[in-house]
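Please go through the sequence and fold tokens given here and tell me how the chain folds. Record follows.
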Amino acid sequence: MVICALSSGLSFGYSPKVVIGTLCFFRFWLGFGIGGDYPLSATIMSEYANKATRGAFIAAVFAMQGVGIIFAGLVSMIISKVFLLKFEGTPFNVDEVLSTEPEADYVWRIVLMLGALPALLTYYWRMKMPETGRYTAIIEGNAKQAAINMGKVLDIEIQAEGDKLAQFKAANEYPLLSYEFFQRHGLHLLGTMSTWFLLDIAFYSQNLTQKDIFPVMGLTSKANTISALREMFETSRAMFVIALLGTFPGYWFTVFFIEKIGRFRIQLMGFFMMSVFMATIGVKYDYLKTKEHKWTFATLYGLTFFFANFGPNSTTFVLPAELFPTRMRSTCHALSAASGKAGAMISAFGIQQYTQDGNVQKIKKSMILLAVTNMVGFCCTFLVTETKGRSLEEISGEDGRQNETQMKTSKPVSGHQDDGWE
């Protein structure tokens, strides 16, 4: 992530197309690193947390994405504003400014290279972090080392229990491509992959209405009337405001309420509310984009982001880290995340390409289609089970209890004692 973020800012070439090609190459490998970090961050937190607060802790890991979005907006605003100061007080001519803004080429490079800083700051602690106890014990078969690792992280003394290790290890022998996995967790994997896929189609299409709502709110000017640097500054400022008032609170509402409401209900609620708001925007788009109704438009737009994050955007990250057995936990999380990015590609190359000309009727149809997509995600949520209040071994069936992986209850089994891990 560090190397490719720096390399992205150094993208070279003798023509714009070659520069874009080089940039895509480095962003691909940056995505490779991020794709590894997604399941690892979720799995590490899942396997170290206790069952009473596990969902809140995993959601808090993901909620830091909201902090990152805010800082990304600030960085873009500050860098572009610094370079804009050169043009303050000068007569404005679009063609002249665009042709004499070599600084614009520096700005995006600096912003991308600064993306290496967070990864660099966390590198040392990530290298010092021991392997999770569950993986060390169940997959590597080293109960003693697992107890030492868990003791270091949790700052308590843990005793290795060979009998329980043998029991859990025996329940983890089946591979991903097996009938037993399909029977136990096939529907779960289908559920986590489909819901993340459908969510990202809608989530990454939410900027369809930006070109109308931002100017109406006075946050941006029309693109053909301002320079590239000014457009970057105003767009960054607008996204910062949306992130601060809509996106960021949604993440932390999930953190605070996930152990009270449960993952299952939050995901259902989020998909349903996103569908309602997107359908409303689609049906009333002509009415909403006028200046007289700008606050109604802004409210609907912000609430869509809020319920995406106080909903499936958070829970699709949490559930794959809890539903699957130790041997396949991070792999299944990675498959679910990858399916989400496939949905993002459909959003970028399908829906956004379809509405690129700004045709109002196309935007309205697309918003209604996205509302339907959210309702399909609502239905696919019933393929997963509630994980609140249960240990990972109980959820995945690694404790030897059959058929409990298909339970739809959010309550622990009556009389079930803690299995020693949590």
User: Anything to note?
Assistant: The chain has 20 helices and no strands. Confidence is low (pLDDT under 50) at residues 402-422.
